[in-house]
UniProtKB/TrEMBL annotation:
GO cellular component terms listed in the entry, alphabetical order: cytosol
InterPro entries: Alpha/beta_knot_MTases, rRNA_MeTrfase_TrmH, SpoU_MeTrfase, tRNA_m1G_MTases_N
GO terms assigned for molecular function: RNA binding; RNA methyltransferase activity
Species this chain originates from: Larkinella knui
Name by which UniProt lists this protein: TrmH family RNA methyltransferase
UniProtKB keywords: Methyltransferase, Transferase
Xref: Gene3D superfamilies: 3.40.1280.10
Keyword Methyltransferase: yes
GO biological process: methylation; RNA processing
Tagged with keyword DNA-binding: no
Length: 181
């Protein structure tokens, strides 16, 4: 019978090593995310999938806060982050630096995540919006790409932390496949 692998056997990076190790070429932008538990969960996902950075925009809460810390499980110490009030100004600056802006939203002209093929030579910034209103319309207009996760049930959306996990996993799976072929 299989046994669970102990934490010591997992051989994870230390916080200090994580800060210096190469990251994957993507960042996460949380714009006006209300739930501090969602913010903490996204930190944990960013750590697990080695994101370069998280930008916390608008009303999105920032560490240190007990609700973020509770779900982040230490990832606020390992993942680089910055608070930026104006998400549109941030996106303008990132685009000038060559980042591809991908809004995660249900919108006209969106690309199904299953059809998305990242370019290994391009850096991506994934934008996640408010839990109720989604990604800001101004961000949608400025985005280079709009990605949508196909859904087949009765609900019209997924929790932002779940969405971030799906998007990060999908991106890294495809990126690593492209790098090995």
């Amino acid at each position: 019978m299989p046994r669970k692998i102990s934490l010591d056997e997992l051989n994870r990076l230390s916080v200090e090593d994580f800060k210096t190790v190469d990251k994957y070429p993507y960042i996460l932008i949380l714009d006006n995310v209300r739930s501090l538990n969602n913010v903490g969960s996204v930190f944990r996902t960013a750590d697990a999938f080695r994101a370069e950075k998280i930008y916390l925009c608008g009303i999105t809460g920032t560490p240190p806060h007990r609700d973020i810390t509770k779900t982040a499980l230490g990832a606020t110490e390992s993942v680089a982050w910055e608070h930026v009030q104006d998400v549109v100004a941030l996106i303008d600056g990132l685009q000038q630096e060559g980042w591809i802006i991908a809004a995660i939203e249900q919108a006209e002209g969106s690309v199904s995540l299953q059809d998305f093929r990242p370019d290994a030579n391009k850096k991506l910034a994934f934008v996640f919006g408010n839990e109720v209103t989604g990604v800001n319309d101004h961000v949608i207009e400025k985005a280079d790409l709009i990605l949508e996760i196909p859904q087949y049930g009765t609900k019209h959306s997924l929790n932002i932390a779940v969405t971030a996990g799906i998007v990060c996993w999908d991106f890294l799976t495809k990126l690593n496949k492209n790098l090995t072929h």
